[in-house]
Sequence to fold (365 residues):
Amino acid sequence: MNNESDVVIELDHVRVSFGDTTAVHDASLKLHKGEILGVIGFSGAGKSTLVRTLNLLQTPSAGRVRVLEKTIFDDGTVIKPRELRALRRRVGMIFQGFNLLNQSSIADNIAFALRHSELSESDIEQRVRHLLELVHLEEYANAYPAQLSGGQKQRVAIARALANNPEVLLSDESTSALDPQTTIQILDLLKDLNRRLGVTVVLITHEMDAVKRICDRIIVMEHGELVERGALRDVVLHPRQAMTREFVGGSSETERSLAAYHLGGLKPNQRLFQLTYGVDNVDQSATLELYRRFGVESSILYGSVDVLNGELIGTLIILVTGDAQQLKQATDYLASMDIDAQQLDSSLVSSDDEGADDSSEERVA
Ligand SMILES: Nc1ncnc2c1ncn2[C@@H]1O[C@H](COP(=O)(O)OP(=O)(O)OP(=O)(O)O)[C@@H](O)[C@H]1O
Fold:
């Protein structure tokens, strides 16, 4: 469980301004040991700027940054260059463009990160071999970057970032230049390294699928603000901000699907519910029980299955029909079930094309 003692990074009211442009406004966040945090937002939202403050590649204009129990920036005061260099070895970073040295072999690219270490030459050689094994590139020690595919180059960059055994790995759009299949391989590698080495990961991306695949927690950025945050499951299944809904896709897809029925709104004897369940409560058949117990009929209007960080999540939207007493019984019963049930607003099935706003969901569970 997360607690204060496992905080590896803490931003406290951090602001970054470039002249008149403020790229990050008043950002506060905590990163816990061993987690994978996704930072998502459209281009220009301030994601890179925010994450670059974590190793002071970007000096903030105000606020406080604490990394691995060291205050590295406090309202204008920066730690000494020597301390900063030592700290940066504990915080690895990978980028969209790989940043490899094209004139050096793969082994030398990785060894480059160890040039200031106290390891002997043979220890460095051994460490490089081990790092190449970690990223499944044992065969490529003597190859040059130009001979490698984009996915393989990113693997080299990951090996180099891990050379000094960092506790934290920052990934800035590391899969954005890769095709979907290679993206999945790199994401799975990051997850695997997170599990095996316990390295904490910050994944900056504009791709929701990347976040859904491996992140434990997510922060959504818009115009330099952290507009939404929470556990992946909560944010994906119940996004609060319109921007997050757009990213998550599921909700806007749901809205489009429901609008396509052209129901023209709910009748007085109808209610709309969204049911969400995982593998642990997939056996609870809400629709069947509503009929058995109270004679309440329900029609399924929408269904989907998502995979969130390896966990299967099902979503059903049902239209429940009954008299006043039955509707109350149905509402109470759904609230008592293990599955998550939310009553949805009738605007989702009304004839005007207006989508639901933030007040359109009312939790019953
Ligand atoms: N060095 C800089 N000087 C001036 N403005 C900058 C600088 N770096 C970033 N900005 C501005 O800050 C804002 C946020 O940029 P940032 O790169 O952090 O966003 P982002 O969400 O990472 O977007 P992208 O995915 O396109 O990189 C943008 O308006 C950008 O133009």
